Every structure is written in structure tokens, then in C-alpha cells.
Fold this protein.
Amino acid sequence: MSDASGPMRFCCVAVDRIHGGLVELLAAAQPSGAWIRQEQGRLGLGVAAQTSASGADRFADLAHWWDSLSWQGPSLDGLPAGAGPTAFSSITYSSDSSSASRLILPELILAVTEQGTWLTGVVVSEPESGSAEKPAAEGFPLDQLLQKHGLRLDDGALSALSASPAAVPQAQLHAGTHPEQHYMDAVEAGVAAIGERRLEKLVLARDAVAAAEAPLPPGPLLARLTRDYSDCWTYRAGDVLGATPEMLVQVRGEELFARVLAGTVDRSLGEQGARVQLVENPKQRNEHTLAVESLLEQLAPVSAQLRAQTPPAVLELPNVYHLSTDVTGRLSTAEEGAEPISPLLVAERAHPTAAICGTPTATAAGLIGALEDIDRGPFSGPVGWVDTRGNADVGIALRGGVLENEDRQLRLYAGCGIVAGSEPASELAETWAKMRPMLGALGLKR
């Protein structure tokens, strides 16, 4: 369903500086979309248009809607990356989820890149009957949009009208859909299935709930995540938000990039102990190898040149250590005469990876439904942004949660890769470690 009743009209303005920086601005904002890493990224405010989709065709439906929009605005030729309209995407992990996949086009998009900072305003164009259409820049209501969202642009400087972020109300942590024992039983059943050679790897997730008496403000939560997990991509699209360390696919014209994370140990081991456990432990290396191989296999039909970093690196985060492999390539559609492919359809090829599902995929997916007994919704689904130039960042919605109950409740999710030798109690502890980013942002400890 779409609320775009006409062509989309946009304007682009260069920003010289942001008073207090991007993170301070984020803390005071009410973002409809966010994708930020190390003080760079994109921030969306309000909604100019949006659409939703469900089922097996959800990727294609969202891509078709985005590609079918018509635009009235300045030429983007010669302008740096970041200038122009951007939509934020949240796609469910499963095609049979009761949640909807969404594509949200904000009214204001702030893009901070190495090439500069740009502010793009977007409205639905509705010319008066019988009158000629005005040039896109003429009479564009940018000042009204800025005021609506509590911003001021003065002589190239962007600032918030109120520098005081909303207070984060005290939350209480509650059990999720099932008690902890249910998860440990599921892990035990998964290990048994692996022992029977029904599959090699299985990723099992669980949930927990943080509830407050007042709405939880996304801006301050995202700002805390951005500060504490600067090497991750802090995201929001629709009701899902968090800070993911994993890039499913990044598309820049013809170039493709992905980051695979699989194999995890807690920070309590220390750097040297973590490296020994990740690099020398066959369980961790096997889990990681399966994830990398699955991504390479799934992307092969759309990429002519795929290269995986070897050996894998150890990625240090504030809560855990991961084995990490970067994958680079070139889209097959870069060949002369080939039709360009939507980045959302490239993401569909990559989803789900073994890092969030298992190997073989079909067998693992079936067991996940039976053993988890939860609806993951957007958790572990693709999340990120796509622009009108065919560029995109699409991560995996990890280390986060989903706002519910008029934003008074945040359902947290975390999952672990189960392979031969996995121990239920250790996997349960790992889920709590992976929930730590959102628990910390909420001021909770576990």
C-alpha cells in the first residue's frame, strides 16, 4: 500500500556544518529512518510516502514501487553521493511473518558522507488543475519542513531548535514469548538434528521484552547506540531499530560489498582469549566457513567477480568478538547491455545467509519454525536504505528490537549459530551478550 498520490518533488541543499554533530542532532530528533556509522550516514525525518509488502514477493513489490516513482527535482549528475532522495527499508526475515515489510521515503533526508553533507526535502507534487507545473525548486516548502521537524538551516549551518533530547523512561525487563528453558531445549534439539546429519548448522533466536510506562523515544536510544557501538551501523526503519555489525550487501554503482560475521565469544574472555577461541576452535571456524560459503553461493548469480577475505579477521565490539570476512565483487549487470538490477533484489539473493538461518537453508528454515516458535518479524531481515541512483546499504537487523504497544515496549531479539558441540547454557548466555547493546541503551543490565 502506498500513500504517494502524485509525482515526488524534491530539492537538495548543501550543509556546511551540523551544530553539535550528527549524533547530537539524532538525539534530539524523532527519526523515521536512520543508518549511521562513525558520524556518517543518513537520517530521515517524517514520511513523504511509504509502501508495505508481504509474502514471497515482498522484495520485488518494494523494488517495483521504488522504481515506479516519478521525480521532479534537480539533476543529480555531478552531485556527490548523499544528495537526492533516499528510502529506508525494513524487510521481514520470513515470507510468512505476520509483520509487513516496509519502504519509507522521509520528508527530510540528511546525508553525511566523506564528500560532504546534503539535506534533501521531499513532498508529493500536486499541481493545481489546469496550471502548468512549477520548477521543482520554485516554492519548495523546505523551511516549513525544517520547522515541522524542529530544525533550522542558517547560512549553511544546520541545528536543532531544541538541544534537549527526550528523556528515556525507566524500563523493566520481562520474559519474551517463551522462558529461557524453552531456548535451551531448542538448542539441544538442534544439536541432535545436526548429530543425525540432517543439517550442518542451525541459527536459533529468542526474544525478551523491555517495557516502560511512557513511549520510548527512538532518537536518544539511537544516539546512545551510535556512541557506544560506533563500528556498527545504527539503524531504524519503521518499528525496528538497533546497531548491526553485519552488512548483507552494499551497492555502489557496479561495486558490491558484504561483511559476514559468524563465530562469537563474549568480551569477558579478553582479546587474547577471544582470538584463541575464535581462530583455533573448530566449532567457531566451521560456523564461520559455512556462513561465508552460503553468501558466496547465493550472490554468484548476480555477481561476476566475488572475492572473500582470507583468512578471516577478528572483529572487536564492545560486547563481543566475532570472526569476520569481507566479500567484494562486481554486479553481473555491469556487463554492457545488461539491465540494472535493484539493490533490493540483490539483497533478496543474499537473504537468508547461514549466519542467520543455517545450512542447508531449506532444512534449517523448517527447523527454525518448529523449534523457535516465535515470529521474528523484521529481526534478522534486511534493513537499510536505497537511493534513486541504484546505490544502497542493506544490513542485517541484528542487535536490536521492535517497538510495540505505542512505543511503550521494545521486543529484543538475539540468535546463535548452533553446530556440532554447541552447549545450550553457553548459547543462552551468548544471546544475552548480543542483547547487551539495546539493554545498555535502555539503561538495563542483565
Observations:
- The first helix runs from residue 22 to 27.
- The radius of gyration is 22 Å.
